[in-house]
């Protein structure tokens, strides 16, 4: 059916990772995100893009820069037949460039991992178009609006409208305002289809205040016992949030200010400091890391005793991304924008660590290191170095995907297998304190109830968690009297959704300026442009469609075997507006016409050549005029085959007009007035 919306997960269908979905509305094909799977490598990490024709995709919408949502973009833009537009926000594009450059650098050590090169990345950047938040963009018949998602800097939800059908794709989003990001918007419309994440299923997060207090207390304890605190985190995103917390904490605690905070994509906390331990916070280089840095910096600022304890971040990637964070302050919340002192991302107590060997192994410290899931790299190396010492602590501050070491640590194992195959005793304290900027069940439910979508599609979640959430939402909507169908498709499972909705006819130009009331009649040319129908004044077709009007004149020659009187008699049987003008023939010119006959409101002109017995039928092409031409041709042929004696023919003024053409039009369900117009 024409109203069908077809949705197919190409990735992140009952799984977390390689988010990519194909959305088909009317005659438009839109790809939503294109990420890679963190637990796979090379082409195996890509979504199932070979299941669709890439040259039919009209556009690719990228919600944010995390690799599981954007890591496949360079491949799509340079290694496939994709010819459409790629759209993301300005901040997302800025950090995307940095992240993908780092991805290439790391992948250079493994030829099987690399799917594109630096030149491909540069070419992909040229093809990316950016949009601003809340700006309505009409692109090839698709209306796109980006709303704040609150997940990481630049993350957006995409509202998509085609021919009156409205779809909202949230990507990853958070309804809780962090130390530096706004909470997700609630778009001001009711979507027909809502496509949203189910990362945490039916779980509810602790409040921001409780979470930060627990984080700070734990860091303090580790520092006091002389331990080391490792915070594995994404280099961009939560890391920045944690840095703000730590920097503030160190500022307030003078005794901590001699304890270093290192950021190699990780962070630290209070309880670890008090026992003189080391605190490792594995984190994504962008996202969680920035949030954690804000917390730590504030914590160190308030605790003078901590200010001798270093906080390190050892990620060149995060350092580069920090410049983007310092640039896009206007995209953050009021707390950041209204800061009356220095830029909050100019940390006072957090220092970049260029080499892992620069860490003081004898004293306590806090280290933020990537990757967040401890697959390899700096966070894995530090974890293996510190995991056998009970004074130390690792803080898992983000979401952990199945099949990663970070997920395995949540099962409290007694030992782990190192990268070199050696078995290591696990004595290190393991703390889960999620700063993952994903919506929990309560906030998600409130979001759905406010939007009241007709259909809700869950993606980006593990199969069991997603099934539980689907069941819970069905019961919730039933209880609230809300008629919303809930789906949770697997990868490549196609959903055919019908929305009972009338088509929209958009008025353009002078037609749209007329005041209208119910029952008014509008006249114009209806143009199907992309997925929309538009009504335009004939005089404005060029202005609004770019279509130039061309006059096509036809001249059809016929033989007149029976003489002009017979032809004249037959023509007058067709219509009552036959006009005949006798022309002055040039002497000796046998090709000059003797008569000019006009009929059908002067649309059709016949030139009668009596000497050569020919008739030239001339007219400007049109669908109605073609019907007239066929009728005139029939009259000429009939006159040739069935000539009548002249004495039996009536005089012109006595001819009885039979509205035969009009009757033919009516019989074929044509409106002759509309056809003439």
TrEMBL record:
Nuclease as UniProt keyword: yes
Domain spans labelled Metallo-beta-lactamase: 17-234
CDD domains: CPSF3-like_MBL-fold
Occurrences of domain Beta-Casp (ranges): 289-409
Subcellular location(s) of the protein: Nucleus
Keywords assigned: Hydrolase, mRNA processing, Nuclease, Nucleus
Keyword Nucleus in annotation: yes
SMART domains found in the cross-reference section: Beta-Casp (SM01027), Lactamase_B (SM00849)
Gene3D superfamilies reported in the protein's UniProt record: 3.40.50.10890, Ribonuclease Z/Hydroxyacylglutathione hydrolase-like (3.60.15.10)
GO cellular component, one term: mRNA cleavage and polyadenylation specificity factor complex
Short name of any one Pfam family annotated for the protein: CPSF73-100_C
Classification via PANTHER family: CLEAVAGE AND POLYADENYLATION SPECIFICITY FACTOR FAMILY MEMBER, CLEAVAGE AND POLYADENYLATION SPECIFICITY FACTOR SUBUNIT 3
Protein name: Cleavage and polyadenylation specificity factor subunit 3
Organism in which the protein naturally occurs: Strongyloides papillosus
């Amino acid at each position: 059916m024409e109203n069908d919306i077809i949705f197919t997960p190409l990735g992140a269908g009952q799984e977390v990772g390689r988010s990519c979905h194909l959305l088909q509305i009317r005659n438009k094909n839109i790809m939503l995100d294109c990420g890679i799977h963190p637990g796979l490598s090379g082409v195996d990490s890509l979504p199932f893009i070979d299941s669709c024709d890439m040259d039919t995709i009209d556009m690719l919408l990228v919600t944010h820069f995390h690799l599981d949502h954007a890591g496949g973009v360079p491949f799509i833009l340079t290694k496939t037949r994709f010819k459409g537009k790629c759209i993301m926000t300005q901040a997302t594009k800025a950090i995307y460039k940095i992240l993908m450059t780092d991805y290439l650098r790391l992948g250079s050590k493994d030829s099987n991992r690399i799917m594109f090169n630096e030149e491909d990345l540069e070419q992909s950047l040229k093809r990316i178009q950016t949009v601003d938040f809340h700006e309505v963009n009409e692109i090839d018949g698709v209306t796109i609006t980006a709303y704040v998602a609150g997940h990481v800097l630049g993350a957006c939800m995409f509202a998509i409208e085609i021919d009156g059908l409205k779809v909202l794709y949230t990507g990853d989003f958070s309804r809780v305002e962090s130390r530096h990001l706004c909470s997700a918007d609630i778009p001001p419309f009711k979507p027909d289809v809502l496509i949203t994440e189910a990362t945490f299923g039916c779980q509810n997060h602790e409040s921001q205040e409780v979470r930060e207090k627990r984080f700070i207390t734990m860091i303090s304890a580790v520092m006091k016992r002389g331990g080391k605190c490792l915070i594995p985190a994404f280099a961009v995103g939560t890391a920045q949030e944690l840095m703000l917390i730590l920097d503030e904490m160190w500022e307030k605690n003078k005794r901590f200010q001699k304890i270093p905070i290192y950021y190699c994509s990780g962070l630290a906390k209070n309880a670890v400091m008090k026992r003189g331990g080391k605190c490792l916070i594995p984190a994504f280089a962008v996202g969680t890391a920035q949030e954690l840095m804000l917390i730590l910096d504030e914590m160190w600022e308030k605790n003078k005793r901590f200010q001798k304890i270093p906080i390190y971040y050892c990620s060149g990637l995060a350092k580069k991304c920090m410049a983007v964070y310092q640039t896009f302050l206007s995209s953050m919340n009021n707390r950041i924008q209204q800061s009356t002192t220095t830029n909050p991302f100019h940390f006072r107590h957090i220092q970049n660590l260029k080499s892992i060997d620069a860490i003081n192994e004898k004293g306590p410290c806090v280290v933020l290191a990537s990757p967040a899931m401890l697959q390899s790299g700096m966070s894995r190396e530090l974890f293996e170095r510190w995991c056998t010492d009970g004074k130390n602590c690792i803080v898992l501050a983000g979401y952990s995907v199945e099949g990663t070491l970070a997920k395995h640590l949540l099962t409290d194992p007694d030992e782990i297998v190192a990268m070199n195959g050696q078995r290591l005793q696990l004595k290190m304290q393991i703390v889960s304190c999620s700063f993952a900027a994903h919506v929990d069940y309560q906030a998600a439910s409130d979001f759905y109830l406010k939007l009241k979508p007709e259909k809700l599609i869950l993606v980006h979640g593990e199969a069991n968690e997603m099934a539980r959430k689907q069941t819970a939402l069905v019961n919730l909507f039933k209880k609230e009297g809300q008629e919303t169908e809930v789906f949770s498709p697997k990868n490549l499972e196609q959903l055919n959704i019908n929305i009972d909705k009338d088509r929209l006819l958009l008025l353009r130009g002078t037609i749209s300026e007329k005041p209208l009331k119910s029952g008014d009649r509008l006249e114009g040319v209806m143009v199907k442009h992309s997925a929309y129908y538009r009504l335009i004044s004939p005089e404005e077709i060029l202005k609004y469609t770019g279509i130039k009007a061309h006059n096509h004149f036809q001249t059809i020659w016929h033989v007149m075997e029976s003489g002009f009187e017979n032809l004249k008699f037959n023509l007058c049987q067709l219509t009552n507006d036959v006009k005949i003008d006798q022309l002055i023939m040039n002497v000796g010119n046998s090709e000059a016409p003797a008569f000019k006959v006009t009929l059908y409101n002067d649309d059709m002109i016949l030139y009668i050549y009596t000497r050569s017995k020919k008739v030239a039928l001339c007219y400007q092409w049109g669908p109605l005029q073609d019907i007239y031409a066929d009728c005139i041709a029939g009259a000429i042929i009939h006159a040739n085959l069935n000539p009548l004696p002249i004495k039996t023919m009536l005089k012109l003024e006595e001819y009885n007009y039979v509205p035969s053409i009009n009757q033919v039009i009516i019989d074929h369900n044509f409106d002759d007035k509309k056809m003439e117009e």
